[in-house]
Every structure is written in structure tokens, then in C-alpha cells.
Design a protein that fits this description.
The chain has three domains: 10-71, MutS, DNA mismatch repair protein, domain I (3-Layer(aba) Sandwich); 159-230, Orthogonal Bundle (DNA polymerase, domain 1), CATH 1.10.150.20; 237-391, DNA polymerase, Y-family, little finger domain (Dna Ligase, domain 1, 2-Layer Sandwich), CATH 3.30.1490.100. Helices cover 41% and strands 21% of the residues. The chain is built from 14 helices and twelve strands. The strands form three sheets. It has a five-stranded mixed sheet with strand order 5-6-1-7-8. A four-stranded antiparallel sheet has the order 9-12-10-11, covered by helices on one side. The protein has a three-stranded mixed sheet with strand order 3-2-4. Strand 7 (130-135), helix 6 and strand 8 form a beta-alpha-beta unit. Helix 4 runs antiparallel to helix 5 (111-126) and helix 11 (250-271) packs antiparallel against helix 12 (303-317).
């Protein structure tokens, strides 16, 4: 059995082109919630020197003829699910790795023909160009697909072909090895993927822990990282991020705290999880960071209990200044089953949170929400803020 890695080419841009053919062949950039930076770009825009994360004001100077579109994760999920359905028709074992990436098992007589046929079928059905790489392990398959981009299909078969590929690629091309890890490896003379494949696994483990050791074996052709058809259980669930324009307005700061708490609880309820610990992290424009955690008597996802915890954390953490980012981390997670409840663990059947959830399920997300969020009406008026990439369920990677 071989493993294929499928990666969509410029996925957000390609998805926009599916519903608007006018964008084809033009320099297109997809921008984030606040319209502050480019989060995806077409090859035409990339040729103008624009990179992911570039501020929009710099991008416009580099590419004034570019077309800039606010992201729409709801639509991107529709296209992603169409791709996933087709991949599952062609392979019995598929991992929904991210919104635009899939791993799948391949057990056919002609893997090159399989790669080409699958690539072409996705373009016909979903309208999105993709690249497919096939090799003995998922780490090798990812390297092959990177080599074959864009709109490529390549099955790498044979030790000589693998050796040639690994010798040509720097070690930081391996997913999971960032620049800092590559610098550590370079101190031991490990600079290419081939160097990593031939290095003693015990040495790699000492440098990069067991994760790096697995990558070493994967490059040798030993399958150490399986295809996961189901998402592994959560260890931590987080919600938050930038609050847009940094602010020192207490009402706006608290409004974002409540919005992100509601999103966190929504994610926990959707995944059937309760948390034993809640961590709040506040980041300020001047670089200051404050964080603290609260522990619950019993794992919970109840809004009233978590809100009480947030009030305490907020009082201890809030600093004077312009708040920039905030993050919630729910940890010590449990999937409630048969467990001992505390005396007051069961809320009333018609508690406010239940009523809120029922109304929102019927009329739309955030249709009913905490009054504290009235300080940020522009967020709820903008459809781009109603759905995030982390709301797309089933992926093994963010």
C-alpha cells in the first residue's frame, strides 16, 4: 500500500474562482477578517512579490491591479467537503487533514494513473486545481506533492527516485521541521532531507524529540505516522485571536471576552466535551502579556460556571492599555459518560443557555447572544465574522 497527499493549489483563491469565473487568470488576494493582511494569494499575485501575511497597504503598493476579497470560510468548507466526498469514493482510508489537504491510501496497479485521474476528477467536479503526490509514507508523499505543484500528479516509486528527491530538498521542507529545528540539525551536519534520512534515529530524537525521530524513519520509507480516518480526541480546545483594532475601551474589551467565551462553549458543546481547567491569555499592543487559569470543581461546559471563572480571571489579569489579542484554552478535557456528578452539577432543564442555543439553531448563529457583546455590533453585522476555519469540524489539523 502507498500513501497519497492531495493539496489544493491556492485553495481560498481557487474556491473564489469556482463561484466567480471573472477572477480566473487575475491577481487575487484573500484578506482576513479585519482586512488587514493577505491570508492567501493566487500565483499571479505571488509573482508580484506578495507573501502570505503581508499587510494590505503593502500588497496594494506591490500589486495595485490586484483584486482583494474578504475570506468566506463557509463557502470554502462547501468546496472542501465536495473534494472530501470524491476522495472517499476513490480510497477506503482517507484523512481529512485540513480544509485543503487530504491523505489517502493507494492500493492500485498504476499509482501514477490513479494520481492523474483523481486530480482531473476533482477539477471537473469541484472546480479546484489540486496537486497529488504518492509515495511509501505520508512524509515522503507531502514532499512529492510540494515538488509537483501546481496542478501536478506524481507517484514516486523506487529507492533511486526517493534518494534523488531527498538530496534535492533542504531539511526544512519536511513538514514539522521549522527554521529553528533546521538550525539545530545543521549543527550536526544535517542540512538536506537525505541527511536526515541517513542520520542515526537516536541522534535525531535527542535533537528533535520523538517527533523528529518519526520523521527520520518516514523518510527512510518506514510508515510511522498512520492515516487517521477519524479526528483524534481533543487535548485542548482554544478560541480567540486578534480583536481587530487594539482598544483600551473596557466595554469593548469585555465584549470580546464574552464573544470568545461563547465561541469556546459552542465548540465544546459541538464536540461533547467538558473542561476541568480554563486559561485566559491577554496580549497588549505594547507587548505585555498576562495569563492565568481557573480550575473547576467538576469538568463542565456550563456557561454560568465558565462565566464566573472568566470574571475572576479578568479581574486578576486586566492591565491598563490597548488590548490586542486574547485567547481561551479549555484543557483537562473529558467526554462525559458515566461519571460522578457533584451535588449542583446538573443545571435546570430550561436554563438561559439552553434557550439561547435552541433559538440560534433555529434562526442563525449569534442571533441571540449576551448583552455584553452589544459594544461590538460591527462584528455581528459582518458575515465574515460569523464563521471561522476552526468551526470546520473533522479535520485532524487546524
Amino acid at each position: 500500500m502507498l500513501i497519497a497527499h492531495l493539496d489544493a493549489d491556492c485553495f481560498y483563491v481557487s474556491a473564489e474562482r469556482v463561484r466567480n469565473s471573472f477572477l480566473r487568470g487575475k491577481p487575487v488576494g484573500v484578506i482576513g477578517n479585519q482586512g488587514a493582511c493577505v491570508i492567501a494569494k493566487s500565483y499571479e499575485m505571488k509573482a508580484a512579490g506578495i507573501g502570505t501575511g503581508d499587510p494590505i497597504w503593502e500588497a496594494v503598493k506591490k500589486c495595485p491591479e490586484g483584486i482583494y476579497i474578504k475570506r468566506d470560510f463557509r463557502w470554502y468548507e462547501v468546496v472542501s467537503r465536495e473534494m472530501l466526498a470524491l476522495v472517499r469514493e476513490r480510497s477506503p482510508l482517507v484523512e481529512y487533514y485540513s480544509i485543503d489537504e487530504f491523505f489517502m491510501s493507494v492500493d492500485v496497479a498504476d499509482p501514477q494513473a490513479f494520481a492523474e485521474a483523481t486530480r482531473d476528477a476533482i477539477l471537473r467536479r469541484a472546480g479546484v486545481p489540486v496537486t497529488i503526490g504518492i509515495a511509501r509514507t505520508r512524509t515522503l508523499a507531502k514532499l512529492v506533492s510540494d515538488l509537483a505543484k501546481p496542478f501536478g500528479a506524481l507517484a514516486l516509486i523506487g529507492a533511486d527516485a526517493e534518494k534523488e528527491l531527498l538530496k534535492s530538498r533542504p531539511v526544512h521542507d519536511v513538514t514539522g521541521i521549522a527554521k529553528r529545528s533546521a538550525a539545530k540539525l545543521a549543527e550536526y551536519g544535517i542540512r538536506t532531507c537525505w541527511d536526515l534520512a541517513k542520520a542515526p534515529p537516536a541522534l535525531v530524537r535527542r535533537i528533535l524529540t520523538v517527533v523528529g525521530e518519526r520523521l527520520c524513519y518516514e523518510l527512510q520509507g518506514h510508515r510511522c505516522v498512520p492515516i487517521r480516518p477519524n479526528r483524534p480526541p481533543h487535548k485542548i480546545i482554544g478560541r480567540g485571536g486578534s480583536i481587530g483594532q487594539p482598544t483600551d475601551d473596557p466595554a469593548v474589551q469585555w465584549a470580546w471576552a464574552i464573544r470568545n467565551l461563547e465561541r469556546l462553549i459552542e465548540a465544546m458543546e459541538l464536540n461533547g466535551l467538558t473542561a476541568g481547567r480554563l486559561t485566559l491569555i491577554l496580549e497588549y499592543k505594547d507587548g505585555r502579556v498576562a495569563s492565568d487559569s481557573a480550575t473547576f470543581m467538576a469538568p463542565t461546559c456550563r456557561y454560568d460556571l465558565m462565566l464566573d471563572a472568566v470574571r475572576g480571571l479578568w479581574t486578576r489579569l486586566l492591565l491598563p492599555g490597548r488590548l490586542y489579542r486574547m485567547h481561551y484554552l479549555a484543557s483537562d478535557l473529558q467526554y462525559p459518560g458515566a461519571r460522578q456528578l457533584c451535588l449542583f452539577d446538573t443545571p435546570p432543564k430550561r436554563d438561559p443557555r439552553t434557550v439561547e442555543r435552541e433559538i440560534n439553531e433555529r434562526f442563525g448563529r449569534f442571533m441571540l447572544r449576551s448583552a455584553a457583546t452589544l459594544a461590538i455590533p460591527e462584528i455581528y453585522a459582518d458575515d465574515a465574522h460569523s464563521y471561522e476555519i476552526c468551526d470546520i469540524q473533522g479535520k485532524t489539523c487546524f
